Amino acid sequence: MSRLSEIPRGGTAIVEEIDGVRGFRRRLLEMGLVPGTEVRVVNVAPLGDPLFIEVRGSQWSLRRDEASEIRIRGPRE
Amino acid sequence: MSEVTAPPARPMVALVGNPNVGKTTLFNALTGSFAKVSNYPGVTVERRTGVLRVGTQALEILDVPGTYSLVARSAEEQIAIDAVVGINGERRPDLVVLCADATQLARSLYILLQCQELGVRCMVALTMMDEAGASAPDPRRLSQALGCKVLAVDARHRKGKDLEALGEAMVRALQAPTEPLWRWTPSTTLRDHLRAVRDQLPDSWPRNDGMALWALASVDDDHELANIPERLRRAVADCRLDRALDDEPVLGRWAYLDREITKEVIGKPDRSRTERIDAVLLHRVFGFATFIGVMFLMFMSLFAWSDPLIGVIERGFELAKDGVRAALGAGVVTDFLVDGAISGVGAVLVFLPQILMLFLFLGFLEDCGYLARVAYLMDRIMRTMNLHGRAFVPMLSGFACAVPAVMATRTMERRRDRILTMMVVPLMTCSARLPVYTLVIAALIPASRMVQGLLMVGMYGFSVLTSLVAALVMSKVVRPLKAKRLPFFIELPPYRFPRIGGVLLMMWQRASMFLREAGTVILVCSIALWALLYFPRHLPDGAPNYDEQLQTAPPEARPALQNARAAALLTHSYGGQLGQLIEPAIAPLGFDWKIGVGLIGAFAAREVFVSTMGIVYSVGTDADEGSADLRQALRDERRSDGRPAYPPLVGLALMVFFALACQCMSTLAVVKRETGGYRWPLFLFGYMTVLAWITTFVVYQGGRLLGF
Lengths: 77, 708
Prior knowledge:
The structure holds two protein chains of two kinds. Chain A is an alpha+beta fold. Helix content of chain A is 17%, strand content 39%. The model of chain A has no long low-confidence stretch (mean pLDDT 90). Chain B is of the alpha/beta class. Classes of the chains: A alpha+beta, B alpha/beta.
């Protein structure tokens, strides 16, 4: 299964499951990153990290190692 | 009984909502600029309250800090739940007005579901309707779906009419009956846990399933919440929630939002403007170029643009001092008023230009959405030192002055990030160190101008290096500052035009809080320090009788005599005696007691070192770093064996000491104010002094071993 951190700039994916510690998981879930939600990697910061992602029309910054805690299906064609 | 005599309390309305939804704009519009700003006890979160009048009715409005959820992991996040249900010293609100961003409807309403589960009386104010455009939801339909009043409010443009309608709706909503409303059905297992936890909730809390669910989700082995009774903590631990149960409420709420709310939004809000701007501002090349430009501008505003204002304040105080001196004549009272009290007030006010300038800048950057992007751009670098991306701006401001820089740490939401940044900001080469470096380099480092210049640049590099290393070490060693795996999940809000009124209001509120709280500490310390270096005001037996000599001396000899008298008085003041007392402690660093006196004087502000040394060396009370007399006096100073007292190595040691020691009471006062106690300022003073002593010792003794 792939991870959000593997999605290239501009790619989209569907959230399958979120790993990581309790506080981290809940924060992401409460923001609406529940399984089945589409995520788009809008951009990558000039130094390669963090990622700039879009979820449900709002935009967030997320570090690469945090993105690797997000299991995804896709990327969608 | 105070309850009998107290006037009937005004109904209380709490404004709750996500960050960046225009909640504070709405609060300002509702309450005018008469908000009362204070701090929540123990945390650096501003607490704003104001009064709204609707006809004859007056409502107390509380602006609850922006949050995405009521579930809390820290004392800061706990403020939201305290305010919504009225526990831990907060009054129970009669109504919660949820500010929901019309362009982020489902996410904004997540908290509403949490409030409804708690049985709190709610209504919704929809903001950003203009941005939502065609995709804006219909308030009436939404109202039916949510079971509470929903009103569209445009606090930016249609102010008067919408605000009036909102006020009236609030008053009406106060009468609405209320009972817990759950949009999802807990599983049997979760229900059993809720019952077990509910029975252990403190008596002062609402004892319902919503509160039990909050406790189940928030209380944890490594939580940092305040006032959680042990039996509650144990009850939650006994439930041993697995991942599925832990997720159940969140997934349940989102299932409802996706089913019932998402359909109220047709199409997507237009973010093309933001995306076009980001294409430039977050670009690999142009993005960094703009970033450097903006930071340079901010730095210039602190450094250069504040300078004329600081000059005006300083000149104003000089005039006031001269006036008082002329009016009252010489004497202890005059000296107290002039050198103690007026100088003390001046020492506080002199920070205002930089504080105002920095918060003006930060307010604009935050409001238009760029500050979050600064964090995004810099996070990769700051993270290496376990600092937050948002620590960049305070660290940069530290080059101007640590006092506004410490205050700028407020833009970070987590206490741990703020405190770690506050602990390293005072290591940056602030502008008060410059006069000291200038004097020492010019007087004691015999080298070409270029080498002297490089040494100055080297001091800047040294301060960046030490602050970054200090951050890294402290984040690994000091327990409360340890880098936990906390997410860097920050919102990058759409670009918006900043509201000048709101920015100015915030700027003024922060500045007045500095004057009220840190200012008083600085004033008291200034006066105490003045007294230390002023009294006892008489010379020991056997000292020359300067007063007599002054009477008989020819006019051209008087200035020298006066300077000698001032030097003798300072040397025999309590502070001067203290300088001699600490000589054994600073002798291994190459410093004599005269520098010791200078160090004590420098505690008022580092640059005071220069003028204190001026008095010690009898070159007058107003020597500055350019004074040729003072430079020569330092060069001519001899030890008892005839060798120069201040060889270049001592000069270097002195600069290293000033770079690292926390020689600044104002920094300590503002850290005390921002952390809400003496623990962190004492830690800051302690670690910097020890670091300075050890490093200076190594530099001086190492230099001597190498034959310098």
